[in-house]
Specification:
With 451 residues, the chain is an alpha/beta fold. It has helices spanning 14-25, 42-54, 58-79, 84-111, 116-123, 125-140, 167-184, 210-221, 254-262, 273-279, 330-343, 369-377, 404-411, 438-450, and strands spanning 2-6, 32-36, 145-147, 155-157, 164-165, 187-191, 194-197, 202-204, 225-230, 251-253, 283-287, 296-299, 308-323, 351-353, 357-363, 381-395, 419-422, 428-434. α2 runs parallel beside α4 (84-111), α2 (42-54) runs antiparallel to α5 and α3 (58-79) packs antiparallel against α4 (84-111). The longest helix is centred in the N-terminal third of the chain and has 28 residues, at 84-111. The mean pLDDT is 95. The structure holds adenosine-5'-diphosphate, aspartic acid and magnesium ion. Adenosine-5'-diphosphate binds next to loops.
């Protein structure tokens, strides 16, 4: 069995879906569990609908809902043209989802109040729509496929908009549901991103979460491979939208992939790797517009080669400098500081310390940052330095690569460096620069390391 996940651009409209169906058709002998994202742009549209409804802007919300319905109905029309037996039920499936959503949005507009529960319900509809359409299209092509509801398999706890998957429960439910459906079908299809929380309320895995769904299902079924089908040839040495000379990596380790995703490479959701590592399942990143390509294989760390793999970046971060004038012992000070970040759920990326100072980086506008600053200010002076970016050079055993730091510093000559850090596992060297010089800095580091 394999898991095949198709992202937004791979299901963006008639052509993309037809290509995707051909790719699935070529792998039916492997019993594919297909996981799909919403059509590209649809989740953004749904977030906008939610915000518009919360502002009680009924008219704009209805206009956006018509846009949503139109886009999906047109896709069904084009995809299943001349095949009324599948087209009519597919259109009524789309209309049913859109009608229910519309009723819900009308109620939110009337109340002008949007809980996380309501928001999660609204943004879940993109994947429900795309998976419904693709399920009909697969069956119309003779690939007998059962549509499965991811909300009955992927169970989360905590924040409904960024749920924490409950692995044990998932590992019980997925084999039951998928196993039963596979007995009578060549393939099954389900939604990425969407889930239910332990009390049955709608939840989602956070933006870009469909990759995570794919690896959770892969783990639960202990599949042969997890395939992430996207719009680039694989994992590249840098984001190709920023670095023209970025090239494809043939193989990287789980650890390198996790580090790249965590430090800004959008190609994978940062938590995708962890479930795959647990069962040691290889992940392939492949291009649905170039299915013959070899893609990138992500495998066990030991087998990957010692070398520099990529330059990733986080564009919008801040440095928080925390000074203490009181002489508390250093360990007490550190634990007090990190306890505050952790209790407020603000995640820290880089850390650098001296006797009486800690500098940390975090996102530019994390939730609860005001609370963190207030609590820190009770025993320390706090300075926030925003509009910064973090650039991370990622690879295996970077400490063994001669002259690497010199090359990086040479590429950054003349730029202000606010922090420099080399991780303990030698997998990552990061620097913090002004956001204004990010693009030129990334290009110049990439040039000196790869071109
Ligand atoms: P999908 O909708 O298929 O999930 P995403 O847009 O989430 O696709 O991720 C793919 C995009 O990630 C690519 O189009 C590319 O612009 C971006 N990206 C950023 N960093 C990298 C990288 N190192 N390698 C490949 N793609 C990257
Ligand atoms: N559709 C969701 C998003 O846009 C999940 C995904 O595409 O991975 O964030
Ligand atoms: Mg994605």
């Amino acid at each position: 069995m394999i898991v095949m996940k198709f992202g937004g651009t791979s299901v963006a409209g008639k052509e993309a879906i037809s290509r995707t169906i051909d790719i699935i058709g070529s792998k039916v002998d492997k019993q594919p569990v297909v996981v799909v994202s919403a059509m590209s742009g649809v989740t953004d549209l749904l977030y906008k609908i939610a915000d518009t409804a919360a502002r009680k802007d009924h008219k704009s919300a209805m206009a956006l809902l018509s846009e949503l319905r139109e886009r999906h109905v047109v896709t069904v029309d084009e995809l299943l043209e001349g095949n009324a037996g599948y087209m009519l039920p597919a259109i009524s499936g789309v209309n049913e989802i859109c009608d229910e959503l519309e009723q819900f949005v009308i109620a939110v507009c009337a109340l002008g109040e949007l809980s996380d529960r309501s928001r999660a319900f609204i943004v879940s509809n993109g994947e429900l729509l795309s998976s419904t359409i693709i399920s009909y299209a697969l069956n119309a092509k003779g690939i007998s496929t059962e549509w499965l509801d991811a909300r009955k398999m992927i169970i989360t706890a905590g924040d409904l908009m960024k749920g924490e998957p409950q692995s044990e429960r998932i590992c019980e439910l997925v084999p039951e549901v998928v196993g039963a459906a596979m007995k009578s079908h060549k393939a099954v299809i389900t939604q990425g991103f969407i889930a239910s929380d332990v009390e049955g309320m709608p939840s989602v895995l956070g933006r870009g979460g469909s990759d995570y769904t794919a690896s959770l299902i892969g783990m639960a079924m202990n599949v042969e491979a997890i395939e992430i089908w996207t719009d680039v040839d694989g994992v590249l040495t840098a984001d190709p939208r920023v670095v023209k000379g970025a090239r494809k990596l043939d193989t990287i380790s789980f650890e390198e992939a996790a580090e790249m995703a965590h430090f800004g490479a959008k190609v994978l959701h940062p938590l995708t790797i962890e479930p795959a590592v647990r069962e040691n399942i290889p992940i392939y990143v492949l291009n649905s517009m170039n299915p013959a390509g070899s893609g990138t294989l992500i495998i066990e760390t030991a087998t990957a080669e010692d070398s520099v793999k990529s330059v990733s970046f986080k564009e919008n971060i801040q440095v928080i400098n925390i000074f203490t004038t009181k002489m508390i012992d250093a360990s007490g000070f550190l634990s007090k500081v990190f306890d505050i970040f952790s209790r407020n759920n603000v995640s820290v990326d880089l850390i650098s310390t001296t006797e009486a100072n800690i500098s940390v980086t975090c996102d530019q506008h994390p939730k609860n940052i005001e609370k963190v600053v207030k609590e820190l200010s009770e025993f320390a002076d706090v300075e926030m330095d925003g509009d910064k970016s973090q650039i991370s050079v990622i690879g295996k055993n970077l400490v063994n690569i001669e002259g690497l730091m010199q090359k990086m510093l040479e590429a950054l000559r003349g730029k202000k460096l606010y922090m420099i850090s080399q991780g303990a596992s030698y997998i990552n060297i990061s620097v913090v620069v002004d956001r204004a010089v990010l693009i030129e800095s990334v290009n110049s580091i990439h040039h000196s390391l790869f071109e």
